[in-house]
Amino acid sequence: MAKAKTIHECSECGATYGKWQGQCRNCGEWNTITEVTPSAGTKTLTVLSPGKSAKPITEVDSRLSTRRKTGVGELDRVLGGGFVPGAVVLLTGEPGIGKSTLLLDVSAKVAAKASAPVLYVTGEESASQVRLRAERIGALHDNLLLAAETNLAAVLGHIEENRPSLLIVDSVQTLAHPEVEGSAGGVAQVRAVASLLIAEAKSRSLPVILVGHVTKDGTVAGPRVLEHLVDVVAHFEGDRHARLRLLRAIKNRYGATDEVGCFEMSDLGIVGLEDPSGLFLESADASIPGTCVTVTLEGRRPLATQVQSLIASAPAGAPRRTTIGVDRSRVSMILAVLEARQGLAIAGRDVYVSTVGGAKTSEPAADLAVALSLSSAATNLALKDSLVAFGEIGLTGEVRATPAIARRLAEAERLGFKRAIVPQAAADEARGVKNLQVTLVRTLAEALQAAFNPSEK
After folding, report:
1. For the RecA family profile domain, which residue ranges apply (predicted)?
2. What's the whole-model pTM score?
3. Residue 181 region, left (φ>0) first, then alpha (ψ -120 to 50), else beta?
């Protein structure tokens, strides 16, 4: 008898190889390649008569896909206005970041206003453990059903019995298809489980949220086909030691991918932040040397962020360069420009640059605020007035334009800032600002002059 053909497949990314090897060349993981027997494909396919005839697109009723609000405004913002019936959302994030807490809150809010129940399937915790978290965050409702299951057949049975208005699976890597070989979380299992749940969602117009694990480098664990099958891929991120959490849509078939939802982690759960700029401003009006405020963009959302710098004498040896929340390479470049173009003696001193409130920014628009903050710390002179600055700095000391200047200025004006230093190239966008004194600069030298001597033009 002919020996069955086998292949070797990576359990992390699904890449296949002709023979076993220690490391997967696709994802770089070690000892994840196992031997599998591919299912034999059929050579012929019987043509069937369609159950429903194709119809002109103009006759398709779009009201069947009307969005449904989740009750959490920041989640609705990322989804594009709410759940689309039959849509499947994959929510990813690091362990402990707050995915389950957020979804439990969403479940309770949807259950409170939906006629059909919400089904929350947990494969990682017991029902009593989920109940404890629900009590802590106030997410208890009789219309919210809990099921601790790891068997996909049992989950499908719960769906058939309860006909929920929303299904949440926490997580997709814990479910197992009883007729598919391999352990739960493997490539074959994740592919089979996701395919059946997606088919169920489409046939019932049932919104489904799947929680997905991430690997060490932050990518979705399991086969990459999982991201292609679902309609929305959202990533929940943030520093677990800070209060801020950000929800980004990496893929969205029904909306934009440049919206960002902001949440605050507290003892009572996760709360949406319609105005998160307050988390990033600490004594912004005080005359403290080494501080400057900029306006960064998270997707389309402008956020005011305070940059703080400290320059201290260095002990014997190489001086330290420590950054938190800002791009270390850009800070090094700005230090070189300040020393070479402005004669600021920083080379032999320790430099510390940080943002306030756990904010993170790597865009070049924060360059000017970082430069002003470093100059203020080096000279021990506070910046004058309530000042905000943004612009990219080049190696020659010029201040370059950044995108969305008008949106940044509008946010600064809304927060009550009095003065703004922006690139000269943004003159057209700055004309519409009424309650903000805008100073246009071409070089870093002009920006420093305007920041420390506002009366001098």
Report:
1. 64-214
2. 0.79
3. beta
| Paired residues of 393 in beta bridges | 399
Contact, 259 vs 249, CB < 8 A?
Answer: yes
The β-bridge relationship of strands 16-17 and 7-10 is antiparallel
Question: Omega of the bond prior to 171 within 30 degrees of 0, cis?
Answer: yes
**Band of residue 43 on the pLDDT scale cut at 50, 70, 90:** low
What is residue 283's predicted lDDT score, i.e. its pLDDT? 53
For residue 237, what are its two tokens? 């991120």
Which tokens belong to 173? 């890597």
Same domain, 21 and 92: no
- What is the phi/psi pair of residue 102, to 5°? -65, -45
52 part of a folded domain: no
Is there a single domain that holds both residue 263 and residue 233? Answer: yes
Q: State the Cα–Cα distance between residues 252 and 250, nearest whole angstrom.
A: 7
Annotation: binding site for ATP: 93-100
Residue 260 in contact with residue 355, Cβ under 8 Å?
no
**Edge-to-edge, what's the strand order for the sheet holding 33-36?**
16-17, 7-10, 33-36
Greater pLDDT, 445 or 213 = 445
**What contacts 376, CB < 8 A, 6 or more positions away?**
289, 290, 291, 292, 309, 382, 383, 451, 452
Residue 46, in any domain of the structure:
no
**88 shares its domain with 153:** yes
What's the domain range around 7?
1-37
Question: For the chain, what is the domain count?
Answer: 3
Do residues 150 and 83 lie in contact, with contact meaning Cβ atoms separated by under 8 Å? no
Centre a 10 Å sphere on the Cβ of residue 32 and count the other Cβ atoms it contains.
18
112-134 pLDDT per residue, tens: 999 999 999 999 899 999 999 99
In this predicted model, what pLDDT tens digit does every residue of 428-444 receive, in sequence order? Answer: 888 878 889 999 999 99
Task: Give the residue numbers of the binding site.
Answer: 93-100
What percent of the chain lies above the pLDDT cut of 70?
93
Q: Tell me the average pLDDT of the chain.
A: 87
